[in-house]
């Protein structure tokens, strides 16, 4: 799609490390490969607790993250379809 790029990332969240609240300039689609019990606050949605086997999407420019840090390692496969030439992550 003109003006957009796709980024695929294998992301590991270490136990006790929090993820700062942020946005992306496009859609984030994620699948939890490993771990569980990670809180996922997404603005305008009920708080979710994600576990291995769960999938979720974050709409463009929607603030998310900032929940309770995971107690165990979490591994995510993340697919971003975002606008080119914009930073992938913007703190909120």
- Rough shape? globular
Largest sheet: 4 strands, antiparallel
Unreliably modeled segments: none
Helix/sheet category: mainly beta
Portion in helices: under 10%
- What is CATH's topology name? Jelly Rolls
Helix-strand pattern, N to C? Answer: EEEEEEEE
Tally of separate helices? 0
SSE diagram, text form:
Blueprint: E1 4-13, E2 22-23, E3 26-34, E4 36-40, E5 48-51, E6 55-58, E7 74-83, E8 90-91
Antiparallel strand pairs: 1-7, 2-8, 3-6, 3-7, 4-5
What descriptors fit this protein?
92 residues; four-stranded antiparallel β-sheet; mainly beta; two-stranded antiparallel ribbon
What can you see in these coordinates?
It is a single chain. The protein contains no helices and eight strands. It is an all-beta fold. The strands form three sheets. It has a four-stranded antiparallel beta sheet, with no helix packed on it. The radius of gyration is 13 Å and the shape is globular. The N and C termini lie far apart (27 Å). The model has no long low-confidence stretch (mean pLDDT 95).
């Amino acid at each position: 799609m003109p003006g957009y790029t796709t980024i695929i990332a294998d992301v590991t969240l270490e136990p006790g490390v929090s993820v700062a609240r942020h946005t992306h300039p496009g859609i984030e689609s994620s699948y939890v490969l490993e771990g569980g019990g990670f809180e996922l606050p997404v603005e305008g949605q009920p708080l979710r607790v994600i576990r291995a086997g769960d999938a979720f999407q974050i709409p463009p420019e929607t603030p998310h993250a900032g929940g309770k840090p995971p107690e165990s390692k979490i591994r995510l496969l993340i697919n971003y379809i975002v606008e080119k030439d914009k930073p992938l992550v913007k703190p909120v």
